[in-house]
Amino acid sequence: MIVETKKILIDSKLECASGEALENFELMTDFYGELNEKKDNAVLVCHAFSGSHHAAGKRDGNIGWWDEFIGPDKTINTNRFFVVSVNNLGSCFGSSGPLSKDKNGERFNNNFPQLEVIDWVESQKMLADKLGIKKWHLVIGGSLGGMQSLQWAVSYPKMVKKVGILAAAAKTSSQNIALNEVEREVIRKDSDFHDGKYLEFNKSPIEGLKAARMLGHITYLSAKNMDQRFGRKLQSTDSKIAEDVDFEIENYLQYKGGKFAESFDANSYILLTKVMDKFDIAHGYEDSLETALENIAAEVLVVSFTTDWMFPTSNGKEICLASIKANNKCSYIELEGEHGHDSFLYPNDDYQNAIKNFIESK
Amino acid sequence: MKSDFKRIIEKWIPQNTKVLDLGCGDGDLLEYLKDSKNVNGFGIEIDVSKANECLKRNIPVMQCDIDEGIKEFDDLDFDITIMANSIQCLKNPNLALQNILNISNKCIVTLPNFAHWSCRLDLFLGKMPVTKNLPVPWYETKNIHLCTIKDFEELCSNLDVSVIEKLYLNNNFKESALTRLLPNLFAAEGVYLIERK
After folding, report:
1. Of A5, A86, A158, B128, which residue is most buried, by most CB within 10 angstroms?
2. Could you tell me which chain A residue has the CA closest to the CA of B43?
3. Residue in chain B nearest A305 by alpha carbon
4. Yes or no, beta carbons of A350 and B73 under 8 Å apart
């Protein structure tokens, strides 16, 4: 499989939904496979909240977040399809975001324009134009990436042949927003946060970011999965990460949270959770989901997981039903998923068959 | 699905209509109707591997329980709903039938006749019927609301539903003099096209 990673400069102005603008921007992008001559085999894969462009293959000891799905003869067969995976604007893995510099050479920090999902779509539309891709064979993603896929299909109906919306919703719920706000609050209350200017003080709100991720992580798992994996097992003394840890689950969250906090930027965390909070595809369509989805020309596949309590199955069904009402061609697959919300990341025969059959059907 | 059966259903379905298939299996019938009648088909199927076959055939499908599905569909709009051999699996066939006719102008229902002589014989011998079109033993069957041709037609009349077309078929999906003469005894299968009065 041909793999390329490029930081691509889009030297045009991006007018954001908020009214702010970026004069130009960079998108860190992975490419897997080859674009054919007709340029009709391109697949855009959209990562979730904390993901990156690195979707497949092993690099610097890390495996891509959808490695079992992307590759030769895999779910998205790179012998046939050309996969494009972009690190979203505002994130912290190489694309323009709070860590980059503004036109005056100053680091954005907390002053990066507050984005919305639709801005990501705009930025990727500009990328598609640059790559000469007039129509994606498929735009697909899970969670926030699923929301982004949906936005693509609504914003640029002529550019999307098929759209896959996995473990996602047409809008974030009050509970989603509430949890995100707790996560933001613990970051802001870290004494090293310095109103978002922490890098100017050579600091980082590591503890706040870690706690935020610990809470976030719980929402990605299911109660059953946690019980099966950790139960009430006690952590052995020699492998305790923190002194006052008793249970394995505590140790696990400490470990995961800590590891995450080392590699993620706090301003990006705040910005991206707000992108998620803002998302409501029906906004601007008299709050009617059906009216919004009437724009879609793509064939739609929605997958939900019964163990997902972040975006429960009712969210997926709602998209499918509104889509049918809007006369779209839409399918809905409901799987148990062993991993709660995160199930969309894990290989499973029924799940992968659904995606593969959907992509490859004539 | 038997090709005779497909041809029967096909006759009742006009060109270019919006068709809902409840319990659509692998999407075989909807694909056939798409090719022959250019229908805009949509299926409901509980079994994920069958739903996945629908995706392969590019037939839109919602993977869910029919009972649950119909409830969710309350403000949708179809020309014809097909319920082939599944009414007897529903929790409330009477309510389901009414709900279907709320979202769909017409409905095609096919059902195994529990009063077919082979069933009567099994019962006479003191056993739950296991027949050609009811092959699964009582402890494994999904059929929780089996009925006879007489029962179904009575239900239609009680619900103010009119039967536009009906066919009484033997085990080979054919009408015969016998099935016409005494349908409740000789028809293995009843096939109906119904609508609200």
Report:
1. A86
2. A331
3. B63
4. no
- Within chain A, which residue ranges are assigned CATH 3.40.50.1820? 3-171+279-360
Pinpoint the residues of chain A covered by CATH 1.10.1740.110: 175-274
How many DSSP H helices and E strands does chain A contain? 10, 14
Q: Could you tell me if A305 and A337 are in contact, meaning their C-beta atoms sit under 8 angstroms apart?
A: yes
Alpha helices per DSSP H over A93-232: 117-131, 144-155, 174-188, 206-220, 223-229
CATH topology of domain A175-274: Rna Polymerase Sigma Factor; Chain: A (1.10.1740)
- Contact between A265 and A97 under an 8 Å Cβ cutoff? The reply is yes
Please list, in sequence order, all residues whose beta carbon lies within 8 angstroms of the beta carbon of residue B38, skipping any fewer than 6 positions away. Answer: B15, B16
The CATH class of A3-171+279-360 is: alpha beta
Q: Tell me the two tokens of residue B39.
A: 């229908």
Q: Is B68 on the interface with A (CB under 8 A)?
A: no
pLDDT digits (tens, 9 = 90+) for A9-62: 999 999 999 999 999 999 999 999 999 999 999 999 999 999 999 999 999 899
Are B189 and B111 a contacting pair, CB within 8 Å?
yes
pLDDT digits (tens, 9 = 90+) for A182-231: 999 999 999 999 999 999 999 999 999 999 999 999 999 999 999 999 99
Between B55, B73, B76, which is nearest A331 by CB?
B55
Q: Which residues, including other chains, have CB under 8 Å from residue B82's CB and lie 6 or more apart? A: B9, B19, B20, B21, B22, B24, B29, B107, B108
Q: Which pair of structure tokens corresponds to residue A167?
A: 């473990």
Interchain CB contact of B62 with A (< 8 Å): yes
Give the residue on A whose Cα is nearest the Cα of B62.
A332
Determine, for residues B56 and A360 on separate chains, whether the beta-carbon distance falls below 8 Å: yes
Listed by start position, the domains of chain B span 3-113+145-196
Which of B25, B33, B32 is closest to B78 using CA atoms? B33
Beta bridge partners of B42: B20
Residue A42 contacts residue A80 (beta carbons within 8 Å): no
For strand A21-22 and strand A14-15, is the pairing parallel, antiparallel, or unpaired?
Answer: antiparallel
- A302 at the B interface (CB within 8 A)? no
Residue B107's nearest CA partner among B117, B118, B97, B119 is B97
Distance from CA of A200 to the nearest CA of B (A): 53
A350–B48 CB contact, under 8 Å: yes
Q: Is residue A33 a contact partner of residue A2, using CB atoms and an 8 Å limit?
A: yes
A and B: number of Cβ contacts within 8 A: 59
Q: Is A329 on the interface with B (CB under 8 A)?
A: yes
Domain B3-113+145-196 in CATH 3.40.50.150 = yes
Positions of A marked active-site: 143, 308, 341
- pLDDT of A235-294, one tens digit each? 988 888 888 899 999 999 999 999 999 999 999 999 999 999 999 999 999 999 999 999
> Token match 């739950």: residue?
B128
